Amino acid sequence: MQPAAMNSPDMLGQNLQMLTQIIDAQQQKLECQHDWLQHSLTAFKMPQMTSEDDSEVYIKTFERHAILTGLDKGYWASQLDALVMGKAQVAYEALPRDEARDYEAAKAEILYRLEINPEHYRHLFWAKKGADERRLHLLLQLEGRIWKMD
Fold first, then answer.
1. Is 1 exposed, middle or buried (0-12, 13-18, 19+ CB in 10 A)?
2. What residues of the chain score a pLDDT lower than 50?
3. Helices 103-113 and 55-69 sit at what angle, rounded to 10 degrees?
4. How many Cβ atoms from other residues are within 10 Å of residue 11's Cβ?
5. Superkingdom, according to UniProt (predicted)?
């Protein structure tokens, strides 16, 4: 009977130590959540993206607003996730968890999925040009090739 009695205080001490560790971990988690809420919800208010919004312009506006409000860059990705919709949201949700926390990675993935790149802008530029301007551009390209052949 004595060995069980000796083990009982040791066991109680171990249980108490484990409970203390659990409580400390929960307290840290609550403090982290409180910090996130304090930095993200109260300081940063921006309208959610709509289907009419240009995604690239929206992201640039988001960045400017985040800088002006002093939002810590560590919170940018989670804020952007809460605000984007449509293809941009699908692109963000497809990211692995560690990349989803990185704002630059999230932004790059969204722009890539939306095919916003230099070729996209060239297409938009030439789509706005008239037929005569496009023909002139083609002639200049051909002339440049002819000069190079000489």
1. exposed
2. 1, 42, 149-150
3. 160
4. 11
5. Eukaryota
* Residue count of the chain: 150
Q: Tokens 């990349």 sit at which residue? A: 99
Amino acid sitting at position 130: G
Alpha-carbon distance 47 to 79, whole Å?
11
* Domain parsing of the chain, residue ranges: 1-42, 119-149
- pLDDT score at 123: 63
Query: Comparing C-alpha atoms, which of 32, 45, 116 is closest to residue 74?
Result: 32
DSSP the chain: -HHHHHHHHHHHHHHHHHHHHHHHHHHHHHHHHHHHHIIIIIT---PPP-TTS-HHHHHHHHHHHHHHHT--GGGHHHHHHHH--THHHHHHHTS-HHHHT-HHHHHHHHHHHTT-SHHHHHHHHHHHS-HHHHHHHHHHHHHHHHHHH-
CA distance 116 to 91: 13
